[in-house]
Design brief:
Elements: E1 2-6, E2 11-12, H1 13-19, H2 25-32, E3 37-39, E4 42-43, E5 49-50, E6 55-59, E7 75-79, E8 83-88, H3 105-115, E9 123-124, E10 133-139, H4 142-154, E11 158-166, E12 173-177, E13 180-182, E14 190-192, E15 200-209, E16 212-219, H5 226-233, H6 247-255, E17 263-271, E18 278-282, H7 285-288
Parallel strand pairs: 10-17
Antiparallel strand pairs: 1-6, 2-5, 3-4, 3-6, 7-8, 8-10, 9-10, 11-16, 11-17, 12-15, 13-14, 15-16, 17-18
């Protein structure tokens, strides 16, 4: 992929890259060692003086991934030249890890890109736990990835989740404001603790029946395991959650055959980083998972 700009002003190349082309500082640093910048067709460093009317081009080459491309089912909810959103099933990792290099969403997406002839890389913007299902948003190149990540960090991407929880909150809606910290330096688990990082989530009860409730959740911050911890802090742990559930919620889950956490990334809503239009992407799982109508609940 290549970005092009006709300079509207006299300035150093770095200034044009950051303002007119909106490249992140991290991406500029990575690309400058690859000879990715040209001015009027000639290679240029970031301190090169650019004149009004000069043509600035940036070549966005992607790194070759260290994991294999794989064929497999991929439920695409939205796709254009800049980004793609897919419905991730429960039980699937978003990205390969040190211990697992195959069978992830990234492996399948890379296979899809190769099959469709798209020279794209896998850049997750929203990451879900292995057992959380629903919408995962990914950028097709590092530039769009930086834009979307900045939007996510600022709260410009509205995220809506749905969760089936044990019991019912005392209030039908509210704000959960509880800081989150690591259990220990070596643990992957988190806990609610006063010295943790700020974490806030909004919730609303959609329905309740026979000892369970369906909640709509909006994370206002993006801490690891935030919604799972906040539901447990609310006194209503997510059903099927093996780490943060109580003995009662786990027993309730097991008797009803819920062996993975009942949490779904139901929708994302944001302004497209290139087209300046509102995009809303909804998970098909959010409308097909009939949480409360089953006789098992």
């Amino acid at each position: 992929m290549e970005l092009t700009c006709i300079s509207p002003r006299d300035a150093k190349l770095l200034s044009i890259l950051r303002r007119e082309l909106a490249l992140s500082s991290g991406l500029v640093k990575r690309l400058k060692y690859r000879g990715a910048f040209t001015v009027n067709g000639a290679p240029a460093h970031t301190d090169h003086p650019v004149k009004i009317g000069d043509t600035v081009r940036v070549r966005l080459d992607e790194d070759t991934p260290d994991y294999p491309a794989e064929d497999g089912g991929l439920h695409i909810l939205y796709e254009d030249e800049a980004l793609i959103a897919v419905d991730k099933p429960a039980g699937m990792l978003v990205h390969p890890s040190f211990s697992r290099n195959t069978g992830t969403l990234a492996n399948r997406l890379l296979g899809y890109y190769q099959k469709t002839g798209q020279p794209c890389a896998v850049h997750p913007v929203s990451r879900l736990d292995r057992d959380t299902l629903g919408v995962v948003l990914l950028a097709k190149d590092a530039h769009i990835h930086a834009k979307l990540c900045a939007m996510s960090k600022s709260g410009a991407i509205e995220k809506t989740y749905r969760a089936l929880v044990f019991g019912a909150p005392t209030k039908s809606e509210g704000l959960i404001d509880a800081p989150i910290a690591r259990v220990s330096e070596t643990s992957l688990l988190r806990c609610i603790r006063e010295d943790g990082k700020p974490a806030r989530s909004r919730y609303r009860v959609l329905a309740s029946a026979d000892g369970a409730s369906l909640l709509e959740l909006h994370p206002l911050t993006g801490r690891t395991h935030q919604l799972r911890l906040h539901c447990a802090y609310l006194g209503c742990p997510i059903l099927g959650d093996p780490q943060y559930g109580t003995e009662a919620s786990q027993a309730f889950s097991q008797t009803r055959g819920l062996f993975s956490q009942q949490l779904c990334a139901a929708s994302l809503r944001f302004c497209h980083p290139l087209r300046e239009k509102i995009v809303e992407i909804r998970s098909d799982f959010a409308v097909t998972l009939d949480f409360l109508s089953s006789a098992d609940i």
